Amino acid sequence: MFRQIVERIFSNWTALRLAVEHSMGGPNSKQVAICTIDYIIQYCTSENDLELEDIEDVLDDIMDQEFNTICEDNSIKEVSQLLYNFLQLLKTGDTVQLEKSAKESRMVEEEPSTSCQTMNEDLPEDAEWTQVKSRRKK
User: Fold this and answer.
1) Mapping DSSP to helix (H, G, I), strand (E, B) and coil, where does residue 62 land?
2) How many Cα atoms occupy the beta-carbon half-sphere of 94 within 13 Å?
3) pLDDT tens per residue, range 99-134
4) How many CB atoms lie within 10 A of CB 79?
5) Is 22 exposed, middle or buried (0-12, 13-18, 19+ CB in 10 A)?
């Protein structure tokens, strides 16, 4: 169940979706995002003394290093808080509250809340996008 929640949160996370759609993670941005989901699930479920700040730091690092994206909209804090809350419910075994909270959260909707395409869909071939290159020195 945690995997489904993480997948839904990430597919509804506008900053990540835009980074993928604009290939900020390179030509394989979609695959990088999928690997990120796998990594976050593994990281969250394997760390014993995981704190909210740990999740924030990991997500911040991933967005910066893998997608050359700095999130200034506090979405990393929001996503981290959701992940942390759901993880705590999972660890306590409270599946009833876990399912209830998942249904009540706007970030865990079945469909993304905006009209942008999800990570699992390909952009149409005739889409006209301008590639934005990072100005940061690497």
Assistant:
1) helix
2) 11
3) 777 777 666 655 543 333 344 444 444 445 544 555
4) 24
5) middle
